[in-house]
Amino acid sequence: xxxxxxxxxxxxxxxxxxxxxxxxxxxxxxxxxxxxxxxxxxxxxxxxxxxxxxxxxxxxxxxxxxxxxxxxxxxxxxxxxxxxxxxxxxxxxxxxxxxxxxxxxxxxxxxxxxxxxxxxxxxxxxxxxxxxxxxxxxxxxxxxxxxxxxxxxxxxxxxxxxxxxxxxxxxxxxxxxxxxxxxxxxxxxxxxxxxxxxxxxxxxxxxxxxxxxxxxxxxxxxxxxxxxxxxxxxxxxxxxxxxxxxxxxxxxxxxxxxxxxxxx
Length: 264
Fold this sequence. Notes:
The structure is a single chain. By secondary structure, the chain is mainly α. It has helices spanning 20-28, 31-41, 49-58, 62-74, 90-107, 127-143, 146-153, 158-161, 170-176, 182-195, 206-222, 227-238, 244-263. It starts with 19 loop residues before the first helix and ends with a helix. The mean pLDDT is 91.
């Protein structure tokens, strides 16, 4: 049960984190650093969506990570489809969590959190918004339960967490574990496509069919097995419209391939 609102009852010895406004000011204070940052980020608005998703995990700069998250949000790519999360450092973990928070509060401006004072998170994005978010994360981290504390404090239902990356329900997190064997799944899909080459469409080679099925499967898993969401995001990521019925058939083929792989 939540009994403490960190915005009214401060806790000592919080970890030291830097909010986005402070990161910006620090970067601007050093001309060389600011020019380098501008050079790195100037291509973000025109970059391919899949390329941006790939940069989420590889960037080592917290401010660049935030800029990538914001660009993907402008493209209506929910946080979960920016997987895998970048949590290499506490600062990066904070920015990743902040991307979840920003997405949800912009999507659900009329949502009612558990704490009344957290309602400010559903208002305009200002320096005060960022400071409130930073303090909440720090207190949650101090307690050792960022995900559970903040998701409860925000009063998130299971359906609210579906499109978030880190504030997940236990069942959703367990279902994501399939991605830990993604390489095996890719191999299984490829073997199955090669073995059934004669039944495949002539428009694609077995290798192309396998690559497409793997991407469909990964999108489906990230969508928490929702064919409707998977179809919408697959189009946003890969530029291909795929009807729900066809998507379901591809998932059936993947499941068949996986079953055969496990029996061998």
